[in-house]
Amino acid sequence: MAESLFSELVELCRLLESTNSRLKKVQLIANYLKRLSPVDGKTASYLLIGRLSEEKDGSPLNVGWKIIMKALKSGKNLSLLSAPLTINDVWSSLKLISQIQGQGSMKKKLAVLESLFSRCSKDELEWLLRILSGEMRHGVNVGLLLDAVAAISGIDDHAVRRFDMIIGDVGELVRLALSKQLSGRIGIRIFNPVRPMLAEMCYDVQDALDKHGGLSSFEPKYDGVRLQIHKQGSEIRLFTRRLSDVTKNMPDIIDVLKRSINAFSAILDSEVIAVDTSGKALPFQDTLRRVTRERDVEEVIKRVPLKIWIFDALMVDGEVIIDRPYLERRKLLESIVDKEVLTPFIMSDNKTVVEDFFNKVIAQGHEGIMAKDLRSPYTPGRRGTTWLKIKSAENLDLVIIAAEWGHGRRKRWLSNYHLAVRDEETGRYLMVGKTFKGLTDKEFEAMTNRLLSLKTSAQEWGVIVKPFVVVEVSYNEIQKSPHYESGYALRFARIVRIRDDKSPDEVSTYQRLKILYEKQFEKKGKFTEYATSNYGGL
Ligand code: AMP
Prior knowledge:
Layout: H1 6-17, H2 22-34, H3 38-48, H4 65-73, H5 87-99, H6 105-118, H7 122-133, H8 142-153, H9 157-167, H10 170-178, E1 198-201, H11 205-211, E2 216-221, E3 225-232, E4 235-239, H12 251-260, E5 265-274, H13 284-292, H14 297-303, E6 306-316, E7 319-320, H15 326-336, E8 346-348, H16 351-363, E9 368-372, E10 383-391, E11 396-405, E12 414-422, E13 429-435, H17 441-453, E14 455-458, E15 462-465, E16 470-474, E17 477-480, E18 488-491, E19 494-498, H18 510-522, H19 524-534
Parallel strand pairs: 1-10
Antiparallel strand pairs: 2-8, 2-9, 3-4, 3-5, 5-6, 6-7, 9-10, 11-12, 11-15, 11-16, 12-13, 14-15, 16-19, 17-18
Residues 196, 198-199, 219, 221-222, 226, 241, 271, 311, 343, 370, 389 line the site of adenosine monophosphate.
């Protein structure tokens, strides 16, 4: 099969942009992908959704808009002289750019970009720039690609989504579909992480009991980092919720797990938190820093110990148990892990008993509790009402889409951040407010550098950036607002923390925002109370 041309992808993008019909978009994508080799299909899928790297956690290329503009200025056009650009050419160049580091790296990146741009026709250049900025504006998201996978493979939507949960990478799914390898044999395998099951927010204990049929199980909700544990014999590996392998950063946790899991093979779900020397939970940022730390691990283990809490089992001794009810999985878990690492658990139908449990957990410094339906299967990657989180106040996870230069002391920093939710239906990011509150000076400085590397255009007031950095934001009220495209604005928004563990497509949705807006009217008194007690009357 001949290598696929970039111009064909561009042609597809133009057609996608000109149709609003979801069905038509799916057909166009499926027909296009069917003509490609499996490897090109994988690459084309990434490019179609503006993903620039194969690494799931892959950071962007770290080339600011300035370098891109500079490369454009060179204005060389060799498109008629050189061989037509293939998808693979574009992908290899992006890969090369992401790997360039150290002294003179900007110059080298500029050279690669210049050479790539010089080979583009006008149309190709336009779409390449859209890919680089992540603003494709042709209405294609992962969901649409999954529908295309269903169309290519003849497998129904539901099964494709299940494969997606297990494989966790839409490009890889396209590759498997094109090579006719997508079949019932694909299952959960040791050392191949699956996407973790997610929880939905609920209002309070009564709400959770109602949603779970009057009886439910409750556990502390730890404010840490999700870890999927894979064990086979004496080998143990740990994966984050974005499926990165972080095993080597946590030899202390591996030691604990080696002595506390009593099964030959297992896939378990857990949360890890950093604790102080007296065992009290430390803030989330400390956990994140510790878990992602790759250098001098031995030294930091002594200073910032970790504590792991296991709460579910997906596979035990070769048998996949995700379809069994939670209560059964929990019993099995209790029989194979030591109490030291087992998440505390109560089962109750009594609101007062659960509220008591909630208060105790909060007093221990944790975030809230999780309510889990005892009858529910483990659904990888899915957010549903079978797992509900009950927190004392709900924050939103928002993505930064632009930033303004500060004034006075903050003059050199990008310090007022434009925040957005994600519209689940269109995949677009909609602005809901701005804030310059919540970061330390050091964080402002680091954030400024980070945002500059994500810049897609410069304005007099600041920069527009590729939606990438996720922040958790508290607020005291959601108001209707004509100023923002979303139609809503957060009052007194404040960054609680930077959520490097979340990707932009995991931010709070526009749909959730609307529900929260309505909820305020039911429980207005409560909201005001939270606002004054937690945020000093902001
Ligand atoms: P959130 O990050 O706010 O969407 O909340 C869901 C996250 O809570 C999960 O992804 C886990 O990382 C974390 N978590 C903490 N404790 C538990 C628990 N007992 N069961 C499940 N998830 C938990």
